[in-house]
Amino acid sequence: MSTTSSTNPQTTAPAGPSPTAEPGPRPARLIHNEATTEIPVHLLFRDDPAPAPVPVRPAVVGRRQGTGEQPRARRPEAARPRPVPYVDPELTERPARVLPGAAGVAAGFCGAAGCAVTSWWAGVVPPLAAQALGLPVHAGAGLGPAQWAAYAAAGALGMFGFGGLARGRTGRAWVLGLFGRYRGTVRRTGLMWVNPLLLRRRVDVRLRHWRSEPMPAADGNGVALRAVTLVVWRVRDTAKATLGVEDHETYLRECVEAALARVPVEPLGTVRSSADVAGDTLTRLVAADAAPVGLEVFSVRPVRVEYAPEVAAAMHRRRIAALDAAQRASVLTSVVDSVEDTVTRLTVRGLVELDDYERKMLVKDLTVAFCAGRGDTGH
To answer: Which residues does the UniProt record annotate as the domain Band (predicted)?
Structure first.
């Protein structure tokens, strides 16, 4: 510790105020002939228990302070999308190798012609048929190994030619596979030739809409609801939609049901903005869940929201009570405004002179009269 002492000579003030003295700052008050001791601040509270630290989140505002701008409220965090199943990244749609339909037709006719020539070569063509076709009479060498090999080659060519013919349609695609391996997707239209050994799976790639059945949901207070949604979607990647999941339509339905369990919705007709916000959130969640399996979701909108059967009666009574309370408040406000306007006009124009008691009685009578009149009008 350190001690300091100060001794200042006392000054005598003039007996009377000087007329020429100018007003100035008041002198600081000093303690004369007193000793002061400097005590460190941290020693004053060394015996007090230390306060328990309280975790406080930092205050964050959306705009700078001191610029005249109002702080912006932070928006609530959006719901995070749930984890999606792993899909092979190499499973991506790619075009398959196909040939024009004319090539398949030509191969089929060549195979049929080869079978006819082989039959004539083997001598198994009836004479009447040979005469009708204008073929020369041939004794034939019989059915030997060479003839059977020619039959097999011509028959295989004909079956491959005619068996691979397919007709593509607009809005439809084929997913091709061989021994469990993806071989490409065909989106072409018209007559084409596809390898007949490949397994074909038809996929609808048009824009589709699906109206769901009533699904369980809840509002912001946890009240049970039943919601019907309209989903607009299409298959974007046929390989992932067909081979990535067992049934992409069932998977989409489960995604919608899971999103409804996470997003609070309100019965239609209550708050329009909340329905729009719920639709946007549902669309974002379902689109994020369906994208890894090749589905493109454009919108998920609740088209009908009702209370669950177990709470429908109670919520109906609650809504009626709320509407009745709002109507009563509106009527009371209107009556009070009318009474105030009437009393003010009578007083300002000097038609009546009222003291406090008379004013109270007039207000009471006018209130009863206005309420009775509005009640008769309402009935």
So the answer is: 163-319
The C-alpha atoms of residue 233 and residue 282 are separated, in whole angstroms, by 13
- pLDDT average per 10 residues of sequence, the chain (379 residues): 44 44 50 54 54 52 52 54 69 91 90 83 71 63 78 89 91 92 92 92 94 87 86 95 91 93 77 76 92 93 83 72 78 83 80 76 81 60
Confirm if 172 and 203 have CB atoms less than 8 A apart: yes
- In angstroms, the CA 296 to CA 34 distance is 87
| DSSP calls for 252-295 | HHHHHHHHHHHS----TTT-HHHHHHHHHHHHHHHHHHHGGGTE
Tell me if 203 sits within 8 A of 238, measured CB to CB. Answer: yes
How long, in residues, is the chain?
379
Kindly tell me the number of DSSP H helices and DSSP E strands found in the chain: 8, 12
Judge contact between 263 and 275, C-beta under 8 A: no
Domain spans, the chain: 99-202, 208-307, 312-378
pLDDT of residue 18: 46
Inter-residue contact 226 to 216 (CB < 8 Å): yes
